[in-house]
């Protein structure tokens, strides 16, 4: 597997971030990752096929919302909270609050046995 591309801080565009957040599955993934913990892709539960989940994770990474790390055959993902705060101060917190109020992405979570 080739190394994943992550946009540099100055390359993260608001239109790309907002576009990535236009899908409820991706919103749910951001909600799960908002606790700041790195998660293995296998820990994530979503009502989509594995290939579709992989696509959603790639969209989030390409937009600059997440960082993916590969370790052997396993992939791990984290939310780029500090980078997003530096680039767009306050945006992530506002979006997360709105997601919570509207219960967007609640169908995404962690698999049983994954840390809460």
Automatic annotation (TrEMBL):
SUPFAM superfamilies documented for this protein: Winged helix' DNA-binding domain (SSF46785)
Protein name: Transcriptional regulator
Matching Gene3D superfamilies: Winged helix-like DNA-binding domain superfamily/Winged helix DNA-binding domain
Coiled coil: none
SMART domains: HTH_ARSR
Pfam families: HTH_20 (PF12840)
Top-level taxon: Bacteria
Any GO MF annotation of the entry: DNA-binding transcription factor activity
Organism, scientific name: Nonomuraea longispora
InterPro entries (alphabetical): ArsR-like_HTH, HTH_ArsR_DNA-bd_dom, HTH_MetalResp_TranReg, WH-like_DNA-bd_sf, WH_DNA-bd_sf
Keyword field contains Hydrolase: no
Record keywords: DNA-binding, Transcription, Transcription regulation
Sequence ranges assigned to domain HTH arsR-type in this UniProt record: 6-99
